[in-house]
């Protein structure tokens, strides 16, 4: 077994992750894990699959994973796929169609709803809800770039997009349609501040889509605005109660 094969197998078992958290709570890319994925792509040869995947062509060494009841994962029929090298914990539910790419980590009790994407190396915590059409971006290169992180108990509403290594801390709620990237500013209306570039979405923050005026005389004359995200509150007992219904569906 080559080194990349061993690392991918460890990632698939949840023993190695594409990003790790230090004692201060900061996340860092695992360069060795990402190098193993790139090595797998380089070593792979395109083949035509048969059986359940007849008609598909992909790298021979990165096939879709096969689950059994012993894995404790509920992968509902209808076109979902989990690529080799991705970890999916017991108690995860994947609704069709959804896709979990190589190097991703999905913690126990998480819901991956229809049309959701968990990109390569993205790290999703425990008891997270990824609603319909949520897009979690992946990253392989540059090799030291950290992936998107969604920590435990976060709730991402329908159509949320999170890319470019954004970190969502524990218990945060993103309303439907929120888009977060390195370039999209986030304003905390509770604490009257703008988050620093690269600063994580705080724990238990409730985030909604927003806009802000575009600078420049001509832009202002046209009434133009650009997207941003707004933290309008932090979760309390009332907002927690509104999210309890989805637990019944597990």
TrEMBL record:
Domain of life of the source: Bacteria
Family matches, as PROSITE patterns: HEXAPEP_TRANSFERASES
Keywords noted in UniProt: Acyltransferase, Amino-acid biosynthesis, Diaminopimelate biosynthesis, Lysine biosynthesis, Repeat, Transferase
Signal peptide: none
GO molecular function terms attached to this record: 2,3,4,5-tetrahydropyridine-2,6-dicarboxylate N-succinyltransferase activity
Enzyme Commission designation: 2.3.1.117
Domain Tetrahydrodipicolinate-N-succinyltransferase chain A: 6-42
Family annotation (InterPro entries): Hexapep, Hexapep_transf_CS, THP_succinylTrfase_dom1, THP_succinylTrfase_N_sf, Trans_hexapeptide_repeat, Trimer_LpxA-like_sf
Top EC class, one word: transferase
Swiss-Prot/TrEMBL GO biological process terms: diaminopimelate biosynthetic process; lysine biosynthetic process
Alphabetical list of Pfam families matching this protein: Hexapep_2, THDPS_N_2
NCBIfam families, per database record: PRK11830.1
Family: Belongs to the transferase hexapeptide repeat family.
Name of the molecule in the record: 2,3,4,5-tetrahydropyridine-2,6-dicarboxylate N-succinyltransferase
Taxonomic placement: Bacteria, Pseudomonadati, Pseudomonadota, Gammaproteobacteria, Alteromonadales
């Amino acid at each position: 077994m080559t080194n990349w094969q061993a690392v991918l197998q460890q990632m698939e078992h949840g023993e190695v992750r594409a990003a790790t958290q230090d004692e201060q709570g900061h996340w860092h890319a695992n360069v060795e894990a990402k190098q193993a994925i790139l090595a797998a792509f380089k070593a792979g040869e395109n083949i035509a699959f048969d059986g359940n995947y007849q008609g598909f062509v992909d790298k021979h060494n990165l096939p879709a994973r096969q689950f059994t009841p012993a894995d404790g994962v509920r992968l509902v029929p209808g076109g979902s796929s989990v690529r080799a090298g991705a970890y999916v914990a017991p108690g995860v539910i994947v609704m069709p169609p959804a896709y979990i790419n190589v190097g991703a980590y999905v913690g126990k009790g998480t819901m991956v709803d229809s049309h959701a994407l968990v990109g390569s190396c993205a790290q999703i915590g425990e008891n997270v809800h990824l609603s319909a059409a949520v897009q979690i971006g992946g990253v392989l290169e540059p090799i030291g770039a950290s992936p998107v992180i969604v920590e435990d108990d976060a709730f991402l509403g329908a159509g949320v997009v999170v890319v470019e290594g954004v970190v969502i801390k524990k218990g945060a709620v993103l309303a439907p349609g929120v888009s977060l990237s390195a370039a999209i500013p986030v304003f905390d209306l509770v604490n009257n501040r703008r988050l620093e570039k690269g600063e994580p979405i705080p724990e238990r923050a409730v985030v909604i889509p927003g806009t802000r005026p575009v600078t420049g005389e001509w832009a202002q004359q046209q009434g133009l605005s650009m997207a941003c995200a707004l933290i309008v509150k932090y979760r309390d007992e009332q907002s927690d109660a509104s999210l309890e219904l989805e637990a019944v569906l597990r």
